[in-house]
Amino acid sequence: MTLLLNQWTLNAFYLAAGFYVLALAALRFERLSGLLLALGFSANLASVGIKLYGSWPMQAPHQEPFWLVLCLAGLGLGVLLSGKRDLVRGLLPVIAFLALYTALFPKSDYLPFPRSRTVFAHLMVLLSGLGKALFCAAGVEAALFLRRRKKGVRPLRPRLFGRLAVWGFISFTLSLFAADTWSYLGWTSPVVWREYIMTSVMAVWFYYGAFLHLYLLQSWSLGRQAWFALAGLALLFYFAYLPETGQFLMPRFLI
Amino acid sequence: MRAAKAIWSFLGRADLTLYVLLALVADLCAGFFHFRAEPQLFGPLDRLMLWDWITTYGRFHLAETWWFFVFMGLMLLLVLNTSVCTINRVAGLIRIRSGETGRLDYLLRFSPHLMHLAFLVLLVSMLASYVVGVNLRNNILSPGRTVDLAQTGHRLRLEKMEVEYYQGRRLSFFENRAIDQDLTLAFTDPRGRETVRHLGINKPVRYRGFSVHIKNYQPQTRNRAGRPGWANLIVRKDPGVGGFFAGVGLFVLGLTGYLIQTLRKNARSGPKEQAHGPA
User: Fold this and answer.
1) Is this model's pTM higher than 0.80 or not?
2) Nearest C-alpha neighbor of A61 from the set A2, A13, A105, A122
3) Whether ipTM exceeds 0.85
4) Beta-carbon separation of A114 and B31 below 8 A
5) What SS3 class is residue B241?
6) Counting one residue from A and one from B, how many pairs have CB atoms under 8 Å apart?
């Protein structure tokens, strides 16, 4: 049953990744692209739902990449509905790339364990995925801002990338508090020196903490702030996303 | 006096915050590689006090642990910078009083400083956890056995163990495996008065400043249920943990205040922005 559920989780995610790639390929046809994005989001939701069903009331480790792509796609749909089409066009390559990478390098075969039977474990994954998705969206919006400025066009939404990063910081901070609480309940201390990822999580928090100060104090120009938000994407990808992924796994339907 | 003023002014600079935060990012990225390469050097921080770790693992493996010392130095600088900035700005806010805005708007302007204060409380509490306190690991007890609580005269006895096994087919890998524990613990004070508490996974027990947590247990599967059971308990006296969670609460309060402040600002500036064009 468990192996079967694991395979269904992956199959649903392969389907989601396929839809995201098709949505990217169909960018010129806005309605079709939006529909494919919605289908990808639904398959992605089914994938994390099946995984949760196979773990509940516990949480399986290393699920965050699946949640991150889900949150990004959800953001993409929200942005599409609000009419910011250029931002969706910017987000789609990121969604498709992360979905493909997660599908091919999953760390999905770890079993849940009794210590993950707490609401804080679930909150941590959800809020961290959402926070990182908002940071990604801030980076993409910052890139759009810089491109428009380079072309000499007046930016449409000069403060949006900052707002996205601030909301990301809030969600990410709450995820850290959920992690601290879980860590205390399960391992006696809010900080446990087991996983090297804790250093990169702190690095990401300090980085966006620095951005928050820039945003609030406005001591840097908007252009420099945008470069800062854009550079955050590299930090996020290498230090916060890659460690949660695994080794190359050839999809079963291709074997 | 002039030197003290210069130092105070330097520590209160907002751009110092930015440089320290970026230095912390760089240092932690370096730490990421060292931690990944040598996790066994940092794991002992869970069971040793900070000074014991520094004088053993830390000092003798400087090539791998240098970033941790740099981290502590930068955190100290950040604490000083945050403290001075907060004092300066809060003093300024108190001086100007409410001005033209309402009382709520005035109070909400303290929100970022509440977050700064919470950050300081969090860091000082963390330091307290690593510098003072008791961390007794590997207290292995079978039912009926007793252990002394850090030579305080208080004693802890494992009365009873009840294992909750997973029953169902959905989680096939957990079939007949223990999913939770209900350990009945009896604490006896020096006067012989007894207090009974129930300990479980993710449900630590608190008693007279101590907290007791499960580290490991047997049986973990139903087919070993006939054999004698035991529980490996961690007994901690962590003077920082209460402050830590108080800091978390304060931070969330400050964050909420900041959000309300932002939403109120947006509500006021919204119509103006719309008049100029889409946001």
Assistant:
1) yes
2) A122
3) yes
4) no
5) helix
6) 131
